Amino acid sequence: MQDKVELTPLVTVLAQVQKEGYIQDFKVTDDGRLSTLDDKQQFMHDQVQIVNFYRFEGESNPDDMSILYVLETSSGLKGTIADAYGPYADETIDAFMQQVTDLGKNLDTRV
């Protein structure tokens, strides 16, 4: 019998990366730019780097998956954006992230 692996909640990981200075919350606009929530700063995909990412699976439903991207912009702004993972992913976020340079891990991290 395998030991149950304790899952780390998204809020715990988010709190940790915020302690590391990734405090800005981002969104992707309809025209395909990364933006601060207040729309005061916007970035094209070539102005953003993925520093790290974390995948999460739901405790009761493996289909309940999400991903947290840890990002840094060319202006030095550091923050995060979360999305569903798999078939429920936001197409706008997914399309943007596929164009961004990934400085993070080459393998998925499941927490």
Number of continuous helical runs:
2
Our measurement of the CA-to-CA distance between the termini, rounded to an integer number of angstroms, reads 20 Å
Largest sheet: 7 strands, mixed
- Order of strands, main sheet, comes to 3-2-1-6-5-4-7
Protein name: Phosphoribosylpyrophosphate synthetase
Organism: Pontibacter saemangeumensis
Task: Give me some keywords for this one.
alpha/beta, Phosphoribosylpyrophosphate synthetase, single chain, 111 residues
What topology does this entry show?
Elements lengths: L9 H10 L4 E5 L5 E3 L5 E2 L4 E10 L7 E9 L4 E7 L6 H9 L1 E2 L9
Notes on the protein architecture:
This is Phosphoribosylpyrophosphate synthetase. The chain is α/β, with parallel strands linked by helices and 111 residues long. Helices cover 17% and strands 34% of the residues. It has one domain. The protein has helices spanning 10-19, 91-99; strands spanning 24-28, 34-36, 42-43, 48-57, 65-73, 78-84, 101-102. The model is unreliable at 1-5 and 106-111 (pLDDT under 50).
